[in-house]
């Protein structure tokens, strides 16, 4: 019986790889560079070579491996088709078929990286014990992954769970990276919090520690913890937008738990104090009973979730 | 082999019942009153009696019936537990277990009425051929049902798909029926359109046919079709809110099709002309490719969908 499973998380600069046992214990973890040149034609062969090398090194036979799970940026359909992954250079390709072929028929399952990371947090991270989970990643952007009854909700074209682009502000004049105006990402990402802080600094003449040094999401929440009034106002704005966005998601999806990760989440549970008021004000009562938890797997969520795809 | 299936749709005043063949052809359709007195204790026995009577009348044996599907108001969990259905008088009960017992062990499947109606529209209505569908009912309120990969998304507590209570307006001062402020239902239901029209009539002194006669959703869209300027402004407001709400849903769920039903949908495809501009403006590009269609089953969607639960 197969004892091992590989989890692969393809990023724009590095590919994270992990060897797991079937209980989800991580046995080895390593990285290889993502070679995006020539439309990313080397990425899957490099991954296959890395897996074969690890198997040789550890004397693992093919029949001892349940398969390889892989998470990649961009929409990934249920059948493994990636339509476009801009930062890898990929146009349309079938992730499952191509990697299976490179691995001499080994079983491959694929998914969008944010969705796969959500699955990882459900399996071994902040969402353990739950089957209806929304993972929210507050990083440079805002990403998301939705798990329903233990399964990733991919959506019709693999673009489900794009919660960073929920429209939450009608009066925004600066465009989001996606081209729209007023997306959640414009206020709840690290970049968004910085923007809110800079706006607050410009429009107020209140004293604030944010007036000296670099303005960043981390600086804002450090200042909040130190009782800085202006930073607290910024945190309230952040929380109002994110609470409203999560409230909308709760009303539609009716999850058990939100698992909040990404760089911004390093501020800790204090985030929830700012999210909850607007969440409670805007969420349909039948869907308010949702737990807020912090993600615990950090950058390893993707390899855990990818491995989980096989089990 | 079982040839028949029953579909039951429990409303606050009448229970709609249908006898179907397994291809989904409706053979008989009838109604019984919903007896809500004494905490609705007669509702399930009345339904069971109605089914047995129909079987006797048509000489249908128990083994010829695949089972009974039933849709009821309020949240219904996957296991058939109803926590509270206020307008039926029900507190917690297990719909599947109780009705099965009353029907001598016949198989029963249950769901929330709006979700079940969505399944009906997917099976035999405006959403035929699609498996990822969001049904939107614009009636007295705004209801919804979400189908993912051909299955109802019930959510963790059976309250999934409550799209009428998506928060779409921060500055609302009148409360929604749910107690919150700024829910989609306050602008996109028949009642909501009437409210928008009355507000427009008060705040403008423009001429309008709406100044004579009853103000209603139907009157507004009749006036729109006649080129009435004020009515067109109201339709634009309605469409801005609904397009934004559906855009948010599309970004989260990534469906193939929206099926729009309920009394307001009788205005026809002209609705889409008012919904699309804000939908396109606010929806994440990867999720914009969604079809808008009208529901076609009307009040029968519930019995169709209930029957479909068995197949």
SSE layout:
The structure is a homodimer of 311-residue chains.
Chain A: E1 4-10, E2 14-21, E3 26-33, H1 37-40, H2 43-57, E4 65-72, E5 81-82, E6 93-94, H3 95-102, E7 108-112, H4 113-124, E8 133-138, E9 142-148, E10 151-152, H5 185-188, H6 190-203, H7 217-225, H8 229-253, E11 257-261, H9 270-282, E12 291-294, H10 301-308
Parallel strand pairs in A: 1-4, 4-7, 8-11, 11-12
Antiparallel strand pairs in A: 1-2, 2-3, 5-6, 8-9, 9-10
What does this structure look like?
Two copies of one chain form a homodimer. Chain A is of the alpha/beta class and 311 residues long. Chain A contains ten helices and twelve strands. Chain A is elongated and about 65 Å long. At the A-B interface, helix 8 of A face helix 8 of B.
Please work out how many helical segments of chain A DSSP would assign: 10
**Largest sheet of chain A at a glance?**
5 strands, mixed
- What is the N-to-C succession of helices and strands of chain A? EEEHHEEEHEHEEEHHHHEHEH
Mean pLDDT of chain A: 95
Q: What is the SS-derived class of chain A?
A: alpha/beta
Strand arrangement, major sheet of chain A: 3-2-1-4-7
Rg from alpha-carbon coordinates of chain A: 20 Å
Proportion in helices of chain A: 25-40%
Largest interface, Cβ cutoff 8 Å: A-B, 45 and 45 residues
Oligomer: homodimer
C-alpha geometry of chain A? elongated
User: How much of the residues of chain A is beta strand, in percent?
Assistant: 15-25%
- Report the span from N to C terminus of chain A: 13 Å
Uncertain segments of chain A are: none
Total E-strand runs of chain A: 12
């Amino acid at each position: 019986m197969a004892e091992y499973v590989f989890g692969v998380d393809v990023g724009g600069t590095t590919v994270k790889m992990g060897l797991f046992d079937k209980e989800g214990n991580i046995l080895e973890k390593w990285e290889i560079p993502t070679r995006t040149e020539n439309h990313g034609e080397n990425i899957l062969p490099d991954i296959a070579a890395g897996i074969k090398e690890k198997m040789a090194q550890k004397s693992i036979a093919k029949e001892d491996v349940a398969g390889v799970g892989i998470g990649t940026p961009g929409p990934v359909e249920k059948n493994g088709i990636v339509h476009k992954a801009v930062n890898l250079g990929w146009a349309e390709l079938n992730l499952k078929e191509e990697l299976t072929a490179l691995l001499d028929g080994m079983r491959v399952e694929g998914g969008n990286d944010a969705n796969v990371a959500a699955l990882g947090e459900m399996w071994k991270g902040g969402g353990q014990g739950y089957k209806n989970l929304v993972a929210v990643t507050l990083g440079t952007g805002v990403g998301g992954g939705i798990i329903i009854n233990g399964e990733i909700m991919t959506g019709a074209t693999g673009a489900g769970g794009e919660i960073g682009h929920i429209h939450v502000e009608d009066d925004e004049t600066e465009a989001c990276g996606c081209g729209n105006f007023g997306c959640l990402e414009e206020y709840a990402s690290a970049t968004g919090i910085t923007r809110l802080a800079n706006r607050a600094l410009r429009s107020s003449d209140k004293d604030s520690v944010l007036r000296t040094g670099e303005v960043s999401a981390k600086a804002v929440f450090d200042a909040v913890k130190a009782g800085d009034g202006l930073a607290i106002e910024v945190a309230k704005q952040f929380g109002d937008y994110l609470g409203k966005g999560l409230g909308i998601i709760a009303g539609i999806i009716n999850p058990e738990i939100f698992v909040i990760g990404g760089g911004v989440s390093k501020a800790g549970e204090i985030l929830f104090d700012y999210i909850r008021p607007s969440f409670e004000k805007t969420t349909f009562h039948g869907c308010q009973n949702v737990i807020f938890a912090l993600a615990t797997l950090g950058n390893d969520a993707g390899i855990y979730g990818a491995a989980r795809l096989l089990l």
